[in-house]
Design goal:
Elements lengths: L15 H16 L10 E3 L9 E3 L5 E8 L5 E6 H9 L5 E8 L4 E8 L9 E3 L14 E5 L9 E5 L2 E2 L2 H10 L12 H13 L4 E3 H5 L2 H7 L6 H14 L3 E5 L2 E4 L10
Length: 265
């Protein structure tokens, strides 16, 4: 996987945003493979398609590309808030490619994908309406809060200039496909929150008591739930049945997926 853009493509464009759009879209079309099926057949949609930027010719997965200079950070600026919330409730929500680049060298620094099944209303931040003096007065945009997405929902192709093995990327994608079956109204938010709590433990092996330490934090987020510990146990059961966790013995669990960021003990 080459990390440099084809700089010559930007020669016909005056504005920097246009140049970056052309360079990054060309790079994705040339270098990126589909994490769902592994095919190097990612094509671009026609300009201004409302749903996505790219699709896989082989399996038809959709992808939207967001690019940032230097670092990706904790949030990504997106489009209209109402449109994003509507997409989350529908079937046409694309997966997100996130790309950071160095403007001087025209080189990719980081490239990752966030599978669409990690998107819930919890990660969408509503921005303030545009001022009445603005051309689109009253328009309300949104931000995608990356910090609210579990680490397993951030699958890196390139991390700090280092290319990850293709089999690792595809394996990480497959590890959480069970979330596709869960709808936001069916408790997906709870499941993702418990996954985040597990990741905060920074260990492949943990106990039920370890997770109970997050009871107060979860109680603040879900003030109407009087049975947080019961809910934690319920989500652990879902994660175990989905193959994300392994039940070791009474009250003891182990991460079963391929995330190498976890310590072994």
């Amino acid at each position: 996987m080459k990390l440099t853009f084809n700089s010559e493509l930007a020669d016909g464009y005056k504005s920097q945003p246009q140049q970056i759009r052309v360079l990054t879209e060309d790079w994705v079309g040339r270098e990126v493979y589909c994490p769902n099926c592994g095919s190097l057949r990612i094509n671009g949609y026609e300009n201004n398609k409302p749903v996505a930027d790219f699709f896989c010719i082989n399996c038809r997965e959709d992808y939207e590309l967001k690019s940032k200079r230097d670092t990706i950070g904790d949030k990504i600026v997106d489009g209209a808030y109402k449109t994003m919330i509507s997409r989350l409730q529908g079937e046409n929500n694309p997966n997100f490619f996130l790309l950071s680049y160095d403007l001087v060298s025209h080189r990719v620094l980081n490239f990752l994908i966030i599978p669409k099944h990690f998107f819930t209303p919890d990660i969408i931040e509503k921005r303030k309406p545009l001022a009445q003096t603005a051309r689109r007065a009253g328009w309300v945009g949104c931000n995608i809060l990356l910090k609210n997405i579990p680490r397993s929902g951030k699958i890196f192709y390139i991390r700090d200039g280092i290319v990850e093995p293709k089999d690792k990327v595809i394996s990480s994608w497959k590890d959480t496909l069970f979330l596709k079956k869960k709808k936001p109204q069916e408790g997906k938010g709870w499941l993702l929150d418990v996954m985040r709590c597990i990741e905060k433990l920074e260990s492949r092996n943990f106990t039920l008591d370890d997770l109970y330490k997050f009871e107060g934090e979860l109680n603040i987020k879900y003030p109407d739930n009087r049975h947080v510990k019961d809910k934690i146990r319920q989500q652990l059961q879902v994660l175990r049945d989905s193959g994300y966790l392994t039940f070791v013995s009474k009250g003891k669990y182990q991460i079963a997926v391929s995330d190498t960021n976890f310590r072994s003990s």
